[in-house]
Amino acid sequence: MPDIEFYSPWFLLLFLAFIPLIIRDLRTGKRKGVRVPTTQNMESSSGIRAALFFLKISKYLILSALFLAMARPRSFTVSQDRDDTKGVDIMFSIDVSLSMLSKDLEPDRLTALRDIAIQFVDKRPNDRIGVVTYAAEAFTKVPVTSDHQVVIDELKNLNTTELDPGTAIGEGLSVAVNHLRTSKAKSKIIILMTDGVNNIENAIPPLVAAELAKNNGIKVYAIGLGTNGFALMPTNLDPFGDLIFTETEVRIDEPSLKEIAQITGGKYFRATSNSSLEEIYSEINQLEKTDTKVSKLYNFEEYFNVFLLFALLILFLDAMVRWVLYKFLS
Q1: Is residue 208 located within the same domain as residue 263?
Q2: What domain count does the chain have?
Q3: Inside any domain, residue 292
Q4: Strands 267-271 and 218-225: what pairing?
Q5: Is residue 33 part of a domain?
Q6: How far apart are CA 79 and CA 91, in angstroms?
Q7: How many angstroms separate the CA atoms of 186 and 87, rounded?
Q8: Tell me: the pLDDT tens digits for 209-258?
Q9: Rounded to an integer, what distance in angstroms lies between the CA atom of residue 270 and that of residue 272?
Q10: What is residue 28's predicted lDDT score, i.e. its pLDDT?
Q11: Percent of the chain beyond pLDDT 90?
Q12: For 40, 124, 172, 232, which has the most beta carbons within 10 A of its beta carbon?
């Protein structure tokens, strides 16, 4: 919804001129008339009463419209003018397999990742950001966009049941690459996050997806999520449909993640806690600087002409009513 403002609001003070006019109109003066022997069959006309009332208020309508026109009411919308070729395009590629509910990060891996990723988005106001999620398959949640609220909303809605179970790291990476390959940004990066090992045989191999990223000038920052040793992981369901967590060894395909980062000119990180994950995002934020300058464009729509037309219309009606009354009374 556009905002409304007055370009010259001081003209609204002219409405103070109504005070003496209203006092004059309310002042009761001595009525003048002609003495007649009887008032029988002399009924007042409702039409004349309406006409006289209109003539009494017409000056207020005309002056109000003129004062508002002089104040120049207008609506405006604000848009952004940015040069996307100087910014950074960022795709999150997020593992949403069931193991992301493991409890070695607080309160679990997926929630910790979500909260810290949202903070990262808030620190990149001038970059375009998108979201891809993957498990046994990959799905685009948000193409790269400058509308960060959409990105944040989708990050808040991440869940582990939207895709088939499994971990296809290559699929998640290749779908993110596909969205960035035609980007004209000066820098294109993918933040690849997983807590496991690629286990889908017919999916695109992670290293093939890394070569695709390299050939399209895309840098990959890979993050392995999970503590060293054992963690409480969801392994089964109880009769009521609730997850059962058991101590399970944490297995992350670090050699592949390191090679993906090396091939694309990025970097590999291991996040074993909430604080280490936050430090990783802070480092990525420092590594990928943007020099995009965003300027605001104000688009105005003026409404003074509406009030001028209204004043002319009332002025015309006032003249017509006076002429009709003159002819009638004559």
Answers
A1: yes
A2: 2
A3: no
A4: parallel
A5: no
A6: 24
A7: 6
A8: 999 999 999 999 999 999 989 999 998 888 888 899 999 999 999 999 99
A9: 6
A10: 56
A11: 65
A12: 172
Number of H helices, E strands in the chain: 9, 11
What 3-state class would DSSP assign to 38? coil
Q: Do 145 and 261 lie in a common domain?
A: yes
Same domain, 200 and 260: yes
The three state secondary structure string of 137-184 is CEEEEEEEECCHHHHHHHHHCCCCCCCCCCCCHHHHHHHHHHHHCCCC
- Asked if 139 and 56 sit in the same domain, the reply is no
Which tokens sit at 142? 């948000």
Q: Quick check: 18 and 66 in contact, CB under 8 A?
A: no
Do residues 151 and 206 share a domain?
Answer: yes
**Predicted TM-score (pTM) above 0.70:** no
Indicate the pLDDT class of residue 139, thresholds 50, 70 and 90: very high
Instruction: Say if CB 4 and CB 75 are below 8 A apart.
Output: yes
- Domain assignment present for 148: yes
Within the chain, residue ranges assigned H as helices are 18-26, 46-71, 109-122, 148-156, 169-180, 206-215, 254-264, 274-287, 304-329
Q: How far apart are CA 68 and CA 65, in angstroms?
A: 5
Q: Report the pLDDT value the prediction gives residue 37, as an integer from 0 to 100.
A: 64
pLDDT at 82 over 90: no
pLDDT of residue 240: 85
Beta-sheet pairing, 88-95 with 128-134: parallel
- Average pLDDT (103-116) is 95
- Look at the block and give the residue holding tokens 């933040």: 191
Q: Under 8 Å CB-to-CB from 40, ≥6 apart: which residues?
A: none
* Residue that wins the pLDDT comparison between 172 and 239: 172
220: containing domain: 84-287
Domain check: are 280 and 197 in the same one? yes
Interval 48-62 mean pLDDT: 86
- One domain, residues 232 and 214: yes
Count other C-beta atoms under 10 Å from residue 323's C-beta: 10
Same domain, 236 and 157: yes
CA distance 307 to 312: 9
